[in-house]
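The freezer alarm interrupted the setup, so I double-checked each line after restarting. Inputs confirmed:
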Amino acid sequence: MTEQDLAEFAVDHARKKGAAYAEARYEQQSSETFVLKNGILDALAYGDDEGIGVRVLAGGPLGFAATNIMTKGEVRAAVEDAVGSAKGTKRKDPISFAPEPAVVANWSVAERTKLADVPVEDKVEEVRHIERELLDRKYKMPARFFIFTNMWITKFFANSEGSRIRSYSPRVRMYYYLTLMKGNDAEQCYRNYGWSGGWEAVKEWGALDKVLGEARTCQNALDHGVKSPEGRMDVVVGPPVSGIMAHESCGHPTEADRVLGREASQAGKSFITPESIGTKVGSGVVNVVDDPTVEHAIAFYLYDDEGVRARRRYLYKNGVITEFLHNRETAAALGTRSNGAARATNYDREPIPRMANTFVEPGEWSPEEMIEGVKRGVYMKTYMEWNIDDKRFNGKYVGREAYLIENGEVKGPVRRPVIELTTPMVWGSVDACGKDLDLMEAGFCGKSDPGQALDATLGGPTMRLRNVLLR
Amino acid sequence: MEDHAERIVKEATKQGAQDAVAEVVVDRNHQIRFAQNQPVIVNRWRKQIASVFLAHDKRVVVGEITNFAKIPVTIAKLIKVAKASQPNPEFVGIAKGPFNYGRAAVDPGILALEGGGDYVQAAIDGALEEGAKETAGSFWRYDEEHFLNTSNGVSAQDRRVGLYLSIRALVSLESSGHGVSCATKVSQFHPESAGHKAGRIAALAKKPRGGTPGKYDIVFDPLIFGSLIDQVGNRASAYAVAAGLSPYGDKLGKPVASPVVTLYDDGSADTLGRRRFDQEGVPTKKTAIVQKGVLKTYLHNTSTAKKFKTRTTANAGLISPEPHALGAAPGDWTRDELFREVKDGLWLTNTWYTRYQSYVTGDFSTIPRDGIFRIRKGEIAEAWKDIRLTDNLINVWKSVKALSKTREQVTWWGEVSVATMAPYALAQQIGITKSAM
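Predicted 3D structure, all chains:
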């Protein structure tokens, strides 16, 4: 049987076994990854995983089972596991799904240069070239650690309501850590670039220039960096910083499963409640969106893992909480419709509400114009350490590449400026958003149990925060 | 499955690999997740996958096989890739077997367990009895079979089973507690105790007030102390050191913790991290990472050991050595004595989101979650919220003054990534910061 036959069989068999609703998701993930550590190619890694996940509703909790043994017998056993679990486990109020129309679709991501057509030797050479250029700079750089990966994701989704969706999504990612030393002083950077598409990613990223720029600014900080000023002042943050702020302080707290307590034991809850829609959380210039349909962003998709059409979601609009990220389960619980945010890392995980490409919508300002309006402050272009509490209210972002601003001009480097603010303080202080939207920054977004680390865009525009406390 | 591992290795050597390892894992785990005091999903897995490692003229390739009918084709592809790759001069081969392994008895009670709903209910009831209003968490029954074969004479198998329950109890959004139960035998499994602990902490944490930044003496509960042990275990991997992702570079033989601290990895101990062998087939054993405050060794596989002129610690990871199961040697204090020692400090019960500004210096912060308590004269004075532990990893470990005699086995969602035997601990003058409101 083909994977499509097996998925169709799974849905039919689940219904025969008494499931009120059933879906089967076939997924194949092939990957090619290499690690270049201090100039040594540690290993080439090839992943080739495929399987089917079956999820059912049968009058209690959800039942889910997955197998990677692609035979009719094993798929049948998985279906019976899922249905048996859902029927055999007590729950006072059975889980239900918000209604959705049946969809038949086939979507894919275009590759200008197919990843499969580029020999792995050329991919390794691309990163080796970056490494050689780095070494030519003669920095004292005891550790250079690059990971490059490309992945091909093929899916087929079928449910008992008639949806049948095929998709193909190639993705490319490179991330790296550089460690530069001066005496006992160290400066480290971490950056992560992502792309949905083909080998053109490397050109689109401008990877060589970016990596060299990172190393140069680390060295500049070691040579000339001074302690960052403390106290209340204006801060201009670069795209990676506005991106991580959007992700942590807007995207996560508006995930409906957090709001409903389904993630309470792991990724946590949210300071936002079901009643928070319409509540002001930032200034009027703050618009934060999550948009899976941004072409070539790392988390691009057109239909989610429940077969729901993807669209742009306005999470904060004009500083007001406007929308949660939903799958069909959370939408039903809150009496609304899914907005296509259900995603799973692979066939063997349940789809839950996830961010895709989350960012502050660009405004009309250039970074220079924003800086011109600052009498004394800090320009924090990138960050290294960051974290936030599990209700997504207390965030911390520590600058990596950062500069003093005096009388509207960028001065010398400052080290480790610390923004440690509540979520309303961050968004309430924003008075300007740049037009320089950069969505190449990527990350891994963690959630759920078992863990599901998913591709996410962490970029955005430059953004100005007025009169915030800097440590 | 044993046959599959052997076939993969034979095929790889037949096609020219000098070193080959195949580990076939059969996964029959199941899980119940719960939230709002009732189950939300039951997950079951039926998976089998072979991890393949091969080296051809020092060119290292790893891959995976799920369709065992395609073994020759997949190996041919990996060999082709290896030939086109570049040598790794740091790869010196895999461990020479065969080896003798300890017995690996598993509890038939766990193998026979089909559901687990009663355990979930017991944990929820325990928390509610303490005053919690809301609970969430997960129950796991682990059942994995591992079949390992290498081109250096290893043919071994292992069955890794266990039970785990993690529960968070909430009285309100800002008053919560967490408890876990880990067991390799049904008789050791106490989900109700985990529920009671989570509920008790949540009830104690009622009406917290915002904390005050400063330096504090801190009593760490086993769950958060397990997170700090986890940081040491993972940063002590020789791979992390070489990649610049560790503060322990150039610190072998030097003090990295207070003299009361001994930390070890022990995959041979009876915990959820128990395994008979590492990924090269080397029998697992107890390895002191830090002994009486001094860094004794990094965690190694055969290749990293050669680079550092020592012997493998049986922690392969074929590419990167990793901890299996960590622990801190117990101290000689009771829990109550640790609390009484604190004149003005804090009791932290859990944490998450540990991140570094610099791995090589160890500057980091982590966010305490669940019950945070101010201690005055050895007694809980009030509950706090909204603080962050901001310090340096080595400094925190050098600040440890005392450890409890009793320990708990903990592991938890990323922060305590492997089973860890953790005592209560008292550390002095640890940095606390908080967000500007």
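Quick read of the result. Chain A touches chain B through 92 residues (CB under 8 Å).
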